[in-house]
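Lab meeting minutes (informal)
Scribe: AK
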Amino acid sequence: MNTRKSETARKWGLRIHLFFYVLSNVAQVVVWSLYDSGNHFWPVWSIVFWGIGLAFHFWSVYSPPRPNTEH
């Protein structure tokens, strides 16, 4: 059974992931700046760790395909 997604579907998935990453982190920074700007910049944790996940997603979409070793 071949369940590989098409290249277009993988790129759209990455775009959606990027959209929600930016949207939610901007919202967190706005909340931080309005209510807690005098304290620790806590949105950094979401930006960094979710960003790592996004980088892996980007890498999986744009890395060269692995050779097929099935016989």
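Next up, CB showed the second protein from the same session:
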Amino acid sequence: MRTEKDSFGEMSVPDDVLYGAQTARALSNFGLSGEVMPPRFIEACLAIKAAAAGANAEMGVIPDDKASAIQNACLEAREHNNGHQFPVDVFQTGSGTSTNMNINEVVARLAVTASGLDISPNDDVNASQSSNDTIPAAIQISTALALEEDLLPAITALKNSLSRQGDAHREVVKTGRTHLMDAMPLTLEQEFSAWIEALDSGQRRINQCLPRLKALPLGGTAIGTGINAPRGFAELACRHLNLQIANDFCPHNNAFYGISTQDVSVEASGLLKGLATSLIKISNDLRWMNSGPLAGLGEVVLPALQPGSSIMPGKVNPVIPEAVLMACYQVIGHDTAITLGAQSGNFQLNVSLPLIARNLLDSIALLSQSCEHLAHKVIDDLKVNHDALSGPLHRNPILVTALNPALGYLKAAEIAKIAYADNRPIIEVALEKTDLSREELESLLDPARLAHPYRQTD
């Protein structure tokens, strides 16, 4: 053990760690979950520290040699981005000050060791910053990057898989369903197109949110006034940040708002919840379509990935859609917690920042993997059971809907009731109950035509 000091006094710190007294003090205070802040969030904090050092050097706040040592230490600290060097519990002080100081202490120690300079965690690494602007900015940076690098490409992968299956089954007609009951026909391509559009809509909304996530409250320091930061620091820090990570982050036009609220996190989380509901719908549709194989719909066959029962030999279950359902339920739960946390913006600071950071990043990770799993473990190798689709299709009494213009609703309903009661094809009953010829009825009741009612007039 070694002895370290902070403003509260001395603390014993293990010799094999890089952090100092404030981190050790936080570890003695916070042990609610044993869960540490996400690595991507720590990386965002380190990027801010490096960018701040560059801006501070340009503005004469700290010497160039100290800035260079801090920037090199931030790069080195990435190699230590684990629970050993960044061990503070997610459930800590609501501003995330303990995590900010943990990072400051690690960076300072690495910088001192490498350079031999006297570098302070507070006065140098944290120069022109506060936990109150650094932590919200890190939430937004890490969320934006996770969306751009992980989730948006994963959504595209799932859309592409669905599009390929839709193209391959463009002319495969099946019975549609409303209220889980037989409805008018549609093609598999049309069914998949609804899923693709849901994903595409979610993707567009996420892209529209990114500019708001990229407007950072850096430079606002303690409450938004920018106290202890030189004029122009925010713009310069963002420029250095963008040079590091090749992006387009910028200062928020109102740092008071950026520090005291988490509106943009609530917006992003709401979009993630919306995507989760789309994935739930897709997963449940797949489970229904795959159900059986004998006593269910059995319209498609999902890849067999593992035995489905510990007692029933040969049983295979739709395990990936079920896993995705649970992941999406967790995302919806995270959204509720984020919403409640965002309400804790008391006066000039939100005090649920670590929770919001953790839940946002976990939601993005869960949804990214859900899209990837559905694409590559389900949709890519999905098989269509043509017999299960074509058998019920021509016996479906709802096809009588196509006769409404010729016969009227009541006469068509009478024919449908007889077909249901006698379990007969609609065309046979219609031949008996109308003056329409078989040729006319076959044309009117053709499922492919009903799935594309405007095709002939295009």
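CB comment: Residues 110 and 368 are 34 Å apart (CA to CA).
No objections, moving on.
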